[in-house]
Amino acid sequence: MANFTDRVYGIVAKIPAGKVATYGDVARMAGTPGASRAVGMAMSHNRDTERVPCHRVVGSDGKMRGYAFGGEVTKRELLASEGVAMTGDRVDLSRSRWQPE
After folding, report:
1. b/e map of 66-100 (b: 16 or more CB within 10 Å)?
2. Residue 96 domain-assigned (yes or no)
3. What is the pLDDT of residues 20-77, one digit of tens each?
4. I want to staple 85 with a disulfide (CB 3.0 to 4.6 A). Which of 5, 17, 22, 95 is the partner?
């Protein structure tokens, strides 16, 4: 069985452009509900942003919550360029939340 970080990276790698997941969503999908902070830690150590688009993971309230590769402004710009629906400085989760099948 893959370790937690590998499971997280595998999930995040599946988030399509134009969609986001919350840290909590990813934790639940990785089989460890309540591990939102651990997902954030894994994202902060991600070095393969091409394969694991960590900018597509946001807070449960739609806020950016940091981005190690240019800060929250860069994260917001990347998401907007992919067509993620925004309301002010937050992602509109009702329109852009990823719902895997």
Report:
1. ebeeeeeeebbebbeebebbeeeeebebeebbbee
2. no
3. 999 999 999 999 999 999 999 999 999 999 999 999 999 999 999 888 888 899 999 9
4. 95
